[in-house]
Amino acid sequence: MNRATPDATLIDAAVQDALRTWGHEPTRLLQVLRQAQEPLGFLPPAALERIAAELRVPIARVRGVMAFYSFLYPESPGAYRVLFSDNVTDRMRGSKERMREMSQRLWVEAGKVSEDGLVSLDRTSCTGMCDQAPALLVNGRPVTNVDAVRASQVCDLILSRTPLDAWPAELFIVEDHVRRRDVLLDDPMRPGDAIRAAFARGDASGTGPQATLDEVKNARLLGRGGAGFTTGIKWESCSRQAVTPRVVVCNADEGEPGTFKDRLLLNQYADRVFEGMTVAAYGIGASLGFVYLRGEYRYLLDALHATLDRRRREGLLGGAIGGREGFDFDIEIHVGAGSYVCGEASAQVESLEGKRGIPRNRPPRLAEKGYLGLPTIVNNVESYCSAAQIVLHGADWFRARGTSRSSGTKLLSVSGDCERPGIYEYPLGVTVQQVLDDSGARDAIAVQAGGPSGKCIGQDEFARRIAFEDIETGGAFIVFDGSRDMFEIARHFAHFFAHESCGFCTPCRVGTSLLRNLMDKISKGKGSQHDLNTIEELARLLHNASHCGLGESAGRPLLDTLQRFRPAYERRLESPAVEPAFDLDGALDRARRVTGRDDPGAHLGEA
Ligand SMILES: Cc1cc2nc3c(=O)[nH]c(=O)nc-3n(C[C@H](O)[C@H](O)[C@H](O)COP(=O)(O)O)c2cc1C
Ligand code: SF4
Questions:
Q1: 487-575 in CATH: which number?
Q2: Which residue has a Cα nearest atom 18 of ligand 1?
Q3: Across all residues in the chain, what is the average pLDDT?
């Protein structure tokens, strides 16, 4: 198995196949590129030119889109492309060592392709497998729990050029690791139940779809993706727009390092996700639906399509849903291509339109002008599951769990230094300590809730609550014990943000790089107190001046750890003195000697 440049016939077949699936719409550019790349392994110039011609878009746009997404390749990444998941949890479980071993066995340097073109080895941001770290992707397929034995097995299979389909199936098993269930994961809801309930509510009250909006509003469901916006208000605002068709988007990008709860919902509860989207479509009067599935979860795609097909056969998608004339709605799945910022709602809409995922200026809000200028709602996977439950069981039932300001339950993705990593469902308001106890985290010194863009909590705060009024989290709950160096954790997050910044606005593009460089400087023992002050200033500047949430939160892990674990920084400082970026004295030294003004006492007026 080797991947030289594919011949014209192969390129033609790959492009034609992608076009058969996606049609000739420029809005499908990203999906056409992604699908055409699957059989080819990369996108040679001939494929790009062909796609540009078929979609009638400038070749510059095609190249621009390709360059934006890290899972689209202009050159062959080898017949086997090994990407190590690079979250702190992967590193804590030995990913660096495994990568080193594989690099030696496979004769390939990290970041390069082997000379024979067989294999490349590199890192990628968190792949959403932190409960079974370290993880890697081989040609996009996840391999989890990569210990030394597994790493060696993967090397054997690559060196013997075994086709991926012939690899032992157990290598590709992804466990769900559900550790605690509550009403969301235990609900025996059947496909169609919530849709029928939505119809019944509307008919009984005589208010039609408005009854669905009212129920979701009264339930006070706050978005489960992290920002916590009131779902019912977003839906109602979209429903009030005059323009049709309206659009429902499910944000299944789950890119926040440490989060993997949507993976479970998409794997085991796909019907519930689609049901929630359909109920939303009924409420807001939408006919177009999209799931934006992160590229790392490509392995779930076939099963998701099968569920969609079944729902169409059952009359739960397509025309006249549930027998109701005029209620037409269907869902298309778009697969992302390795860009964290595409989790941001407006960047995601750009990506759905086949463009680079650059966050939009707001206003206008997406509810007014979203996908192709149409009124659009974007919600998290879990939000749709909860919405389906609310419509079925009622707002009062939902509010009976959680706190007065944070109703319902929440899925947490627990990972790091604990005995039982996995998914835990709790009523909102659960204490951090309770989660630590349940997951067997004995010596925790810190928890990173909400991933790098969330909050770092120290030991003295473990009585605080996971709730929107206290500690918000989209789901990530990463535990660190006393053996961990919180400076190194923060440095890792600084690298993450610098890598994922889309580069559109200067504060974030420059600021994230500067933060990364400062953290590297301190880690080499060359930092000073002045650098710590600069970090604090930069982090605040990023927060205030960035165009989107990525830049706004990029400095947070540094501020949080500086506040709670300052000694971890200070013990690395070279000296408390300032190390200037420009050595003025050194630069003037030669001039002084030439002019004879190098007498050490001269500046004291003794000459
Ligand atoms: C850089 C960045 C990445 C994000 N990634 C995700 C994500 O992967 N999934 C998600 O649901 N929301 C993500 N969000 C939040 C979305 O912008 C949006 O608030 C959310 O999808 C709305 O859904 P919700 O109200 O149901 O939570 C991200 C935001 C930012 C700034
Ligand atoms: S803040 Fe960062 S990620 Fe967001 S638009 Fe600016 S450069 Fe891009």
A1: 1.20.1440.230
A2: 345
A3: 94
The ligand placed nearest to the CA atom of residue 507 is 2
Q: State the Cα–Cα distance between residues 603 and 606, nearest whole angstrom.
A: 8
The pTM for the full model equals: 0.94
Please name the residue whose Cα sits nearest to atom 19 of ligand 1. 227
Q: Find the mean pLDDT for residues 493-502.
A: 98
Fold of 409-482: Ubiquitin-like (UB roll) (3.10.20)
Q: 282 CB less than 6 Å from ligand 2? A: no
What pLDDT, in 10s, does the model give residues 209-230? 999 999 999 999 999 998 899 9
Q: Which ligand is nearest to the CA of 501?
A: 2
Could you give the CA distance from residue 211 to residue 226 in angstroms, rounded to a whole number?
26
Cα–Cα distance for residue pair 266/306, rounded to 1 Å: 12
242 neighbors 363 (Cβ within 8 angstroms):
no
Average pLDDT score over residue span 340-362: 97
345 lines ligand 1 (CB under 6 A): yes
CB of 551 closer than 6 angstroms to any ligand 2 atom: yes
Nearest CA to ligand 2 atom 4: 548
Distance CA 527, CA 570 (A): 9
Coil, helix or strand for 335?
Answer: strand
Joined together, the tokens standing for residue 406 give 């944070």
Token pair 């309206």 is found at 246
pLDDT of residue 486: 98
142 pLDDT higher than 80: yes
State the pLDDT confidence band at 580, using cuts at 50, 70 and 90. Answer: low
Pick the CATH number of 180-399 from 3.40.50.11540, 3.40.50.300, 3.40.109.10, 3.40.50.1360: 3.40.50.11540
Please give the pLDDT value at position 226.
85
Cβ–ligand 1 contact at 343 (below 6 Å): yes
Ligand nearest to the CA of 511: 2
